[in-house]
Write a structure and sequence with these properties.
- This protein is α/β, with parallel strands linked by helices.
- The chain contains 20 helices and 22 strands.
- The chain has two domains: 116 residues, Diaminopimelate Epimerase, Chain A, domain 1 (Roll); 280 residues, Metal-dependent hydrolases (TIM Barrel).
- α6 crosses α8, α10 crosses α11 and α17 packs across α18.
- The chain is globular and about 80 Å long.
- The two termini are 20 Å apart.
């Protein structure tokens, strides 16, 4: 048994509590906080040197394998030049190796995080010109679309799938969306050696620690990655100090129960994304998707299929998460939960605290209905920072009027919903400081949160999304998950949050950041 005292600075034990002067932990557990006048003795002391100790963060929506792969591969976030992207692929191809994680993927060339419109459209022909006859995949920032080379197209069975962009001659262009993109992701995953996947997950954990994150909710999409890779993610997570809460996107309830999981779904898709023009809407997009995709986006499942999943999971005692972005997808989720509640009882549904991921186009009525069912909102604040506003991507997709009804975090809180925050990494960076800044500086008037509510959403709120209602603070008997930073997030302007320095991160009482001082990995 080892006691650790954090002292010499400020301790924010809870977003809504007054600051303390010290924090005492016993191995992996918080013992107490208090004022300088009553500072206890301890086996070791961490001198804060004027810094601030906070509860470490929980990112409530991540994709660990992709996060690690992007950290190791070609990342085109913010790049608007098609030529620059193709030149990068050509240079990597000329070097003779792949880069789907480190070079050992049979020559597969991988890059991600591009956003369209680029200065000119890209397709398979462009990738072919850059890489010759090699396999190459370029992922859109939302991961719901990708562009593949002809060598990849030849590997995929895309017959009968929506989301295959077609040329004027009716031929696939190489730009794939939703289920078609899912086929490409599944093929891509099959090319990754197991060690490369392990390295990617380890890299993602180190990135999390560097931002003060010690808990993540892993949204494992079976459709994209298959079942074998899930075993790899679980094996790495079991040896890591990072607390990984799994949500497995599948309708196979019995299989999930047999694997010992307490949750199902997460990114179980009811629709797609706005960036790929596949979020399911009640009215068509202002600018229609390319030929090959429906004008109102893509619906993944019938109501009967969704009710079957919800009902089976409810009966098995599993918490359920679903991906619903467009207003039609959100309506489907609520209609289906109401049908299950009519059979199983509203209080039984409320007791499991099911969640909706993204919940972007939620109307006031949607919020009211969700609150009655006890549903929880898993939101990604940087979506608004990156794509909101009168001239942002949302407005170009559906017009300013409809865009003004999206990502209304304050409305969700005021409506009685439990709201937790995440990044959807790699869609936006795994960075709670970016997310908190976005919560406090919303593009929509009246939708910004206070500093304490923003911190709450990424600590207590995010843990509550997975049923961890007693986690996310540094109160006695809770886990000693601590981050020490150079500024108080409750006392700086939103724009100053992103410059925060992470001095140290502790997971269950063990230091995990920086690497040179880490006691665990």
């Amino acid at each position: 048994m080892t006691t650790t005292l954090f002292t010499g600075g400020r301790v924010r034990a809870h977003p809504e509590a007054a600051p303390a002067d010290w924090l005492l932990c016993d191995d992996d557990t918080v013992v107490a906080t208090g004022t300088t006048a009553e500072t206890p003795a301890a086996d070791r002391t961490i001198d804060l040197a004027g810094a601030v100790a906070l509860p470490a963060f929980c990112d409530a929506h991540v994709h660990l394998p992709a996060t690690g792969l992007y950290a190791l591969g070609m990342d085109f976030r913010g790049e608007g030049s098609s030529s620059a992207i193709m030149n990068a692929f050509a240079a990597r191809a000329k070097g003779g190796g792949g880069n789907g994680g480190g070079g050992g993927t049979g020559g597969l060339l991988f890059g991600g995080n591009f956003e369209d419109p680029l200065d000119r459209p890209l397709g398979a022909a462009d990738l072919d010109a850059a890489v010759g006859g090699r396999t190459a995949l370029l992922a859109r920032a939302d991961m719901h679309s990708c562009i593949v080379s002809s060598a990849v197209l030849e590997q995929l069975d895309l017959d009968g799938l929506a989301g295959v962009d077609l040329s004027e001659q009716g031929e696939p262009t190489g730009y794939l969306r939703e289920q078609a993109a899912g086929r490409a992701w599944r093929w891509f995953e099959s090319q990754l050696p197991a060690q490369e996947q392990r390295d990617a997950i380890t890299a993602a954990a180190q990135l999390a620690y560097s931002k003060g994150v010690t808990t993540v909710h892993e949204m494992y999409v079976v459709e994209w990655r298959g079942w074998p890779s899930l075993d790899i993610v679980r094996d790495v997570a079991a040896t890591s100090a990072l607390d990984v809460v799994f949500y497995v996107a599948t309708a196979e309830v019995a299989r999930v129960v047999d694997m010992g999981f307490e949750r199902i779904g997460g990114d179980f898709f009811l629709d797609g994304s706005f960036g790929s023009q596949t979020a399911w809407l009640s009215e068509p997009y202002d600018a229609p998707p390319p030929p090959g995709s429906p004008p109102r986006g893509i619906a993944y499942h019938t109501n009967e299929e969704v009710i079957e999943l919800f009902g089976s999971a409810q009966a098995a005692g599993l918490q359920v998460g679903v991906h619903a972005i467009g207003d039609a997808a959100i309506t489907q989720a609520l209609d289906c939960w109401e049908a299950v509640a009519a059979a199983a009882g509203t209080e039984a549904v409320r007791a499991l605290g099911h969640r909706i991921e993204h919940f972007e186009c939620a109307s006031d009525e949607h919020v009211r209905r969700a609150a009655l069912l006890g549903l929880r909102a898993s939101v990604q604040p940087a979506f608004d920072a990156f794509w909101g506003g009168e001239h942002g991507m949302y407005a170009t997709r559906v017009g300013p009027r409809r865009a003004a009804g999206m990502n209304r975090f304050k409305t969700m809180l005021d409506g009685g919903l439990i709201v937790g925050a995440g990044s959807d990494s790699t869609v936006t960076p795994l960075d709670p400081w970016l997310q908190m800044a976005a919560l406090r500086a919303h593009n929509l008037p009246g939708q910004s949160l206070s500093a304490s509510d923003a911190l709450f959403a990424h600590t207590v709120g995010s843990h509550r999304l997975a049923g961890g209602d007693a986690r996310g603070s540094l109160e006695p008997s809770l886990k000693a998950d601590v981050v020490v930073v150079d500024r108080d997030p409750l006392e700086v302007d939103p724009e100053a949050l992103r410059g925060t320095e992470i001095i140290g991160t502790w997971a269950s009482g063990r230091r995990v950041w920086p690497p040179g001082e880490a006691e665990a990995t």
